[in-house]
Specification:
The two termini are 31 Å apart. Strands 3, 4, 5, 6, 7, 9, 10, 11, 14 and 16 form a ten-stranded mixed β-sheet that branches. The protein has a five-stranded mixed β-sheet with strand order 2-13-12-15-8, with no helix packed on it. It is α+β, with helices and mostly antiparallel strands. It is 25% helix and 22% strand. The chain is built from twelve helices and 18 strands. Helix 3 packs across helix 8. Strand 12 and strand 13 form a beta hairpin. This is 2-oxoglutarate (2OG) and Fe(II)-dependent oxygenase superfamily protein.
Length: 386
């Protein structure tokens, strides 16, 4: 099958000067201004989503369209609440394994895109991110390829999964079960995105989003664990909106998100700060706090979907604010993200005028998604020298 051609045709006004990179937009401080408004996600019941002939255009447009927040939640997904907690409760156990044990499940050759990763990414300040640890794996396929050339060319996609089979064996099944569920629900949502764009009269000459994702080998799950912080640090981050995760847009297609789970001393607790959570930058450069239920599954649009659909569906910059204040001391947070992405050999045609990554991506060129991602990853991990 010939590689799918993605064409950049952004119809949106350029983002503010904060959108200088795929992962980071400069940190905002809200200390001198009122707190941002809180907005509920557009929500679709799972029973509606699985009806392939149901017209969900209004919901898709409201959540993912040019005036939307780039996020939609899905409610009442069977088994989701159980699988979410089953995996998230394993995150502290993984993070608290011995350093020697965690080194055995690191993969430096993938630039820490498989297995355990801690302190390998950089924050907006340029310092290593030691606030959280991550465990990456492809929940759909353990070994995407055995081709040595591809393993070298696209290590962040092509290398095999690494599981802590002796130190925490139960995490493999829990990770795969949740990842596969988010993937299958995401495919249903992608179908309705395809139908919405077709109803807009913007037919695509190649396959739509659902088939692009269905045949991809590049999907990646990320289990995140935010380490508990002392009171002194909780007080320091009060004014920073992006204190836990910097401003960024996802450069995949769809990102499935679970609501964060907070714990203190291994006991689940409510979020200790109402201002903590997910923040999104709107088309009008307004910052809003976005909420959805803990038993809902949220999906955010990534850059390549915006490319595929010529701006009919749009990615938005977003970040995560840490809780602050006395009640936040000693609190840990666990969550999971499922990055649904095109295959590494899907081709992107970079236009003459680009609104993102201008310092990294040259206009008027063709790149595979794999190469595109490797270029962007160079900004956040040590570049390969061989």
């Amino acid at each position: 099958m010939a590689p799918l051609q993605f064409q950049f045709q952004f119809r949106l006004p350029p983002l503010s000067s904060t959108s200088r990179s795929p992962h980071r937009v400069s940190c905002r401080s809200m200390a001198a201004s009122p707190p941002p408004p809180t907005v509920r996600t557009v929500s679709i019941p799972f029973t509606h989503l699985k009806e392939t002939h149901k017209d969900l255009s209004a919901k898709i447009q409201e959540g993912f369209g040019p005036q939307g927040l780039g996020i939609i939640s899905v409610s009442d997904v069977p088994d989701f609440a159980f699988l979410r907690k089953k995996l998230l409760y394993l995150a502290p156990r993984l993070a608290n394994l011995s350093e020697d044990t965690k080194r055995k499940i690191e993969d430096p050759d993938s630039r820490y895109s498989f297995g355990w990763s801690h302190g390998k990414e950089t924050l907006e300040s340029g310092k290593p991110d030691v606030f959280k640890g991550s465990f990456y794996a492809n929940p759909i396929i353990d070994t995407p390829t055995t081709d040595a050339a591809l393993l070298y060319q696209y290590p962040s996609f092509c290398r095999p999964n690494i599981w802590p089979t002796t130190s925490l064996p139960e995490i493999e099944a829990a990770f795969k079960d949740l990842g596969k569920l988010i993937f299958e629900v995401g495919l249903l949502l992608a179908h309705h995105c395809d139908q919405y764009v077709m109803r807009q009269g913007a037919t695509n000459k190649t396959q739509g989003l659902q088939e692009t994702l269905r045949r991809s080998r590049c999907h990646k799950g990320r289990l995140l664990y935010y380490f508990p912080r002392p009171l002194s640090e909780c007080k320091e981050v009060t004014g920073s909106t992006s204190s836990w995760c910097g401003w960024h847009t996802d450069f995949g297609s769809l990102t499935g998100l679970t609501c964060g789970l907070f714990m203190r001393n291994s006991v689940e607790v409510p979020c200790p700060d109402s201002s903590a959570g997910l923040y999104v930058q709107t088309r009008n450069n307004e910052v809003v706090k976005v909420i959805y239920g803990e038993d809902e599954l949220a999906y955010q649009i990534g850059e390549t979907t915006e490319i595929l659909y010529s701006g009919h569906l749009c990615a938005t910059p977003h970040c995560v604010k840490a809780p602050s204040g006395e009640n936040a001391a000693g609190v840990e947070r666990c969550t999971f993200a499922m990055f649904m992405q095109p295959d590494w050999d899907e081709r992107l045609k970079i236009p003459e005028k680009i609104t993102r990554h201008g310092e990294l991506i040259q206009p008027n060129q063709a790149l595979t998604f794999g190469k595109y991602t490797e270029i962007l990853n160079n900004k956040y991990y040590q570049q390969r020298t061989t």
